[in-house]
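In response to reviewer comment 3 from the previous cycle, which asked for concrete evidence that the modeling workflow produces usable outputs, we include below a single protein chain processed end to end. The sequence was submitted unchanged, and the resulting C-alpha cells are shown without manual editing.
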Amino acid sequence: MKKKRYIVVDLETTGNQASREDRIIQFAACFVESGKRLETYSTFLNPEKPIPAFIQELTGISPKDVKNAPLFEDVAPIIASLLEDTIFVAHNVSFDWTFLEREMTRAGISLGKMKKLDTVELARIMYPGIDSYKLQDLSDEFGLGHDKPHRADSDAEVTADLLLLLLDKLENLPLPIIRQMATISGSLKSYLPELLFEIEMKKERENKPLDPAFTEHRGLVIRKKEVKKPTYSRADLLEFPETDEAKMALFKKAGAPLYARSGQFEMMNLVFQAMKSGKHALIEAGTGIGKSLGYFLPAIYQAKQAELPVVISTYTNLLQAQLFEKDVPLLTKLTGFEVKASLLKGRDHYLNLFKFEQLLQEVDPQYDVVVTKLKLLVWLTETTTGDIDEVNLSSGGELFWNRMKHTGWFLSEKHDPWLAHDFYKFNIEQARNADLVIVNHALLLSDHFSGRQTLPKYAFLVIDEAHHFADSARTQGSFILSYRKLKYYLNQLGSLEKYSLLTRLAMAFPEADSLYDLDIAAMKLGEAVEEFFTLLKMQLNYARKNLQEVVLVENSEKDAWNDAIYYAAEKVLRLLQESEKNMETLLAQGKREENELGEAESAFLEEMYAFLLDWKNIVKQLEQMLHKKSPILTIYLQADKNHSISSIRLKAVLMEVEPTLGKEFFAKKESVIMTSATLTVNGKFDYLRKSLGLEKEQLVEKRIPSPFDYKENARVMIPDDMPPIKDTPIERYTAELAKYIRHIAVKTNGRMLVLFTASEMLQKTYYHMKNEKSLEEYVVLAQGVSAGSAARLTKQFQMFDKAILLGTTSFWEGIDIPGEDLSCLVIVRLPFAPMDDPYTKAQIALRKERGENAFQTYSLPEAVLRFKQGFGRLIRRESDRGIVFVFDNRVDTTRFGKTFLESIPSAPILKGNQADLLEEVSEFFKEG
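The workflow returned the following C-alpha cells.
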C-alpha cells in the first residue's frame, strides 16, 4: 500500500483577493509522511507589480527580495510535480488553494481535483478550548517555534508540525468517538470524512479496549468523574492560626511560591473574626496584599469548623477560574490538609447529554453545526464539568448551543437515559460536598432572588471584586429586547408550512387545536414586531442624525410611554402571551402522555420546554417595561448610525438596587465579607456602603494599604502645556496627544498602556500615531482597531519589546501586566461617565429630584473608583517601577480633581511642561 503523503503549502501574496490582480510573492511547500516532517521547498516569486507597504511590513519581504526571483510561470511545472499524489494541506486551505489554482490556470496548468485538509478546521475540532486558531497563536500554545511569522517557508513548516500534532491526537481518540465523527462529518468538503473513515477501519481491526479513564454509554465516550467528599476528621489541623507566629510557621512549611506579605495577616484575622462574630465586613486590600489568600485561609477554617461550605463570589467567569485553578492549590499547600473546592455556574452553562445525543442523530449539513458537533465529541473525552465556557464556539455554534444547554427537566427525570452521567447534577453534588463553593456574582444573586436554590445551604460568604456587586445586581434586573432576538425566536418557532419547532410539534400532536392557534398567533406576531420596530426606527429618525441612543422613558415610576409606541408594544405583548399559552397547552398534553413517549419525542419536548422558558422570559421583560412602575427602570433605544431596523435594541436598566440588596440579601446572611482593591473614595467607604444598601453600624470597615513603596517606585506626572481637553476640537487634541505619547514612548522604550474613556478619541490618536515616522519600530496596538480580545491584545503587548497599547473600558481593570512589560501608564481623561449616556442622565435626574448633589453623590465617586482601578494597572509586584501621566488638567485645576489624587497611593506628583517632565522620566528610569 502506498504511503500517505501530505503537502503543506503556504503562500505570501500582494493582497487577499485571488479574483483580482493580486499575485504570489513567495511559495513554500513542506512534506509530511509516516508521522514526520520532511524537506521544504521555498522560493520568492516576482509578482511584476509593486508590493504594498503593509504587505512588506507584515511579511518582511521587500522589492529587493523579489526583483531577480523567477516568475510564477517559471516554477509552475515544479509546483505541479510537487503536488502529484499528495493531500493538499494549508492553514485556511480555501485561501491558499484558490490563489494557487488561479495562478496555475494562468500559467496554463490545470490542477484537477485534489484531496484537501484545513489545519484551521482540524484545530477547531481537536482543541475545542483554545481561544484563537491563528497560526501564530497555535504555535505559541504548543511551543512550535515560529521565528518568522508571515514568511511562507516558516509558516509551512509550523503548519506541518501542527498537522502532525493534530493527526496524533485524532488517531488516539477512542473508537466510538471516531465512529460518530466519521458519520457526522460526511457533509464536509475536505478530506477529513475520508480520513476519519480510514482511522475507524484501522481501529476496528486493532479492537483495543477502552482506556479506564473513560466510560462508554449509548455510543458516546465521556471522561469518568466522581464527587469528592469533604473531610472534617483532622481536629488538630482545624485551629485557625491567629498569631503571626502561627501563620509564619504555615508559610515556612509550605515554602515557595508562598511568602508572607505585609497586611495579609491582618486581613486574615479580620475575615476570621467577622465570620466568628457574625458580622459583615468591608475590606479594601491594596495591591500586593495577597487578597485571595487573605480571605481563603480564614474561609477554609470556617468551613471545616462549621462543617458547612463557605461561598466565594467574584465578578467574572475568568476570575472564577483563576481562583479555582491558581489559589485553591496554594491554599491546599499552605494548610497541609485537603481543600475540597467546587466551581459552580448557572444551569444553562452545562451540556444536557440527552439533548446532545438526539441532536447528533439529526442530519444538519450547516457547516457551523457539523463542526460544533465534532468539537463537542472531542471535548466530552476531556471535560469533567460539562461547562460550555471551556469551549470556543463560533457564532453559529452559540446558536446551536441553545438547543442542548441544560434547562432542568420538563418530564420526569427517570425518562433521561443520561441521568447518572448528568453534568448539572454532578456539579450541584460537588458543590454540596465542598468546603468552598466558587461562583460569580450573577449566579449568587439569581440563586438568592429567583428562589431556585442551586447553591448548597450557606451562611458565610466572601464577595471579591465587591465594587462590582451593585452593578451585577443592577444587571440582573436589567434586560434588552432586540429586533434580532425576537426574529430569532420567531424563526425558530416557524410555521406549519416549513420545517421548524411548530412542524415538529404538529408531528408530536397532530390532532391538537392549539397548533393552529399557535400558527396564527406566530404569524400575527411577526407582523406586530415589524410594526413596533418600524415605529421605534421613526423615533430614532426624529432624533439627531446619527444619534445611536434615544431615551423613551427616563423614569418608569413617573414618566409615560409615547402612545403609538405603547400600543404597538402592547400588541406584541398580547401575541407573545397568546403564543406562550398555546405552547403551554401542547407541552401539558406531552406531560400527560410522557409514559408513552419514545426517546426522540422526550428529547424534543425537553428542547421545546427550554425554548418556552426563553419565550416566557421575553414576555416577563416586556410586561415589566410596559406595566410596572417599580422597581424604577430607565428605558431607551439603541441602534447603529444608520438606524437599520435589525440593529434596534430596547434596553431597560434598573435604577436602584440599594433597598433590595440591604433588606433582602445582606440581612439574610450571617456574615458577608466584601473586599476589593478599590472600595473607598478619599479614604471613606460611604459611597460603596450606600450603593449596597448597608448601614455603618452593621459593618466592620478596614483599609489595608498596599505594601509597595510608591514614593520610591512611582511618579505621577501632570502636563501643564497640553490644550484643555474640554474646549479643544478632537482632531487637534488627538494630534497633540499622539505627539506627546511619541516623546514619552522614546524615553520609556514603549512598554506603555494608554487608557481612554471614548473609542473615537482612541481611534483618532491611533491613526495619528501610525503616521509618526519615529514610531516605526514600535508595535502600536489599539482596542477596537487591532484584531483580538482584551486578553489577546495584552498577550501581544507582552510579546514585543517596544509596544504601546491603547485601550478603553475593559483595560481600566482586570488586566495584569507585571514587571518591565509595563513601565508607563497614560490616563488621557478622568473617567467620568459621558453625560449623554441615558443611564447616567437618568441617575443624575433621579438624585436631583431627591434633593441630592448628583455630582458629589454619584458622578465623582464612580469616576474616582474607575481612576483607582486604572492606576492599579501600573505597579503589580514589589519590584515594579513606573510612571503615570494624567493628561486631564482638571485633576490639578479643580477642587474635585484633588479627590482623585488623594484616593490613590501616595506617590510624588510632578507638574510641568513637556521638556521638564520628559527629563524627569529619563532621570527616573536612569535611577532604576
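The longest strand covers residues 24-33. We consider this sufficient to address the reviewer's concern, and the full set will be provided in the supplementary archive.
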